[in-house]
Amino acid sequence: MVTTGSGTYTYDLIQDWAKLPQGETFAIVSAVATDSQDRVYVFQRKDPPVTVFDRGGVYLGCWGIGAITDPHGFYIANDIVYLTDRADSVVLTFTLDGKPLSIIGRRGVHSDTGCEKPMDLVPRAAGPFNYPSELVPAPSGDLYVSDGYRNCRVHRFDADGRLISSWGEPGKTAPNEFHLPHSVLVDADGLVYVCDRENSRIQIFAADGRFVSMWTDIHRPTDIAQDRDGTLYVSELEHDGSGPRISVLDKQGAVLARWKSRSAHGLWVDSHGDIYLALTGDKSVDKYVRRR
Predict the structure, then answer these.
(1) Dihedral angle at the C-alpha atoms of 7, 9, 12, 13, nearest 10 degrees?
(2) How many angstroms separate the CA atoms of 175 and 259, rounded?
(3) Which of 95, 111, 180, 231 has its CB 3.0 to 4.6 Å from that of 126, i.e. a possible disulfide?
(4) Beta strand 40-44 with 50-53: parallel, antiparallel or unpaired?
(5) What's the predicted TM-score (pTM) here?
């Protein structure tokens, strides 16, 4: 078993951790999350889009056949599933066993940003949605959406799905400019962390969208998660010849640990401090078991 990380953040790596039934394989794995019992939900780009495992990687079941066109972001809070159907430009919530609860947006209706090719820098910002990337709840009950693949905004909704505000403009350098806001996280203090992927930075905002800070010692961040102690974990893609990696950061953005990994599109930390990576190219899930 490979050991990685450093100091307090040292892990044993289990590659290809999740064990599907015989004869089954993953497609592109887009995201991963755990519920209150640390069951692991893997979001993949084929039917069934959601497969469920116990902490040991034993397959428990699946759901969602026919419900999602283009799986992208996946988040669990208080045993509610929050996910994005990217190409259909909708965000949805489900129960843990796959019963639909809500939907925001209209399937196949995209806001007018002037962008046709996902990941291009968009000509102009627009309202919800045009290929959204992630939906997450805040402790306040509000909902935040990073609308990134053909837009450049973060949208804030109330708990009933009514739009409160949006922020973000196309750009590469200034605060509040985005080039593919790919993931969003709201912490216990209401701070909103946005993975500004193609600008290789994380921008931090107050709950109402006022800019607070940015972290630039980051390479094309794809996902950000937080453990029960407030420590932040970021999956990063290859950038300028530097391979993909995982960074562990404190709330001021200081690096606590950093190591090379397989290229991960999604990342999650469970209640034990173990890390799960959703691997698009490798079509698998890696698990990092934290040493105690």
Answers:
(1) -130
(2) 28
(3) 111
(4) antiparallel
(5) 0.97
